[in-house]
Amino acid sequence: MQDFSEFIDSLTSGFTPVIGGDYKQEDYAYIDLSENNRDLLKLEVASAEAFSIFIEEYLWNRKAKAAYGGYNELRTLYQRSELFNNEAANRNIHIGLDVWVPAYSDIISPLDGKVHSFRDNDDFGDYGPTIILEHFENGRKFFTLYGHLSRASLQDLKKGDKVKAGQKIAELGDFHENGDYAPHLHFQIMEDLQDKDGDYPGVVRKEDLDNFLKNCPDPNLLLKI
User: Fold this and answer.
1) Low-confidence ranges of the chain (pLDDT < 50)
2) Which of 15, 30, 128, 165 has the highest local Cβ count within 10 Å?
């Protein structure tokens, strides 16, 4: 069987939006939020508002409208949350793709699919409102996750609802409802959902990284930003 990463890469031939509106490929700027980014050391990362200003200035300086990045990225910013920063968890490696755009931006599905599950993961530092779609392409089932949404996005949603590629499925939330982050989409691909419902780890321990990377390939293989 074809490697899952290669399979995901084969599904699209060019830039495939997950943010609605008039964003073009050239409107995106890559951002490094790893421990190697010295600018983060000067920032109060516990403040969603301060982080929002940091993102806005980053985009302004690069004449960009959106920022993206974060796959397989070791981050220190999770130290602010007990959800990740405790002896049992010790999770600090991000395995989704973050797309930083304004709150209430439209989120669209890059592929045909259906609603698998959804939940408001409302712990501090968690996803907040989250939707997982199930897809079936070329005889293979897999899943995509959309985190940090608005609570309104979950209203009237039903498991099994069909979605088309390019269809609006949600809106981004602001920091009051998205787990207390600067507005951004956490987008992730999973081959095996491992019986999860409305949730799946997006930040993992180094000890578990290899298995998660096999199950969760780089989402930019699909989006091709």
Assistant:
1) 80-86
2) 128
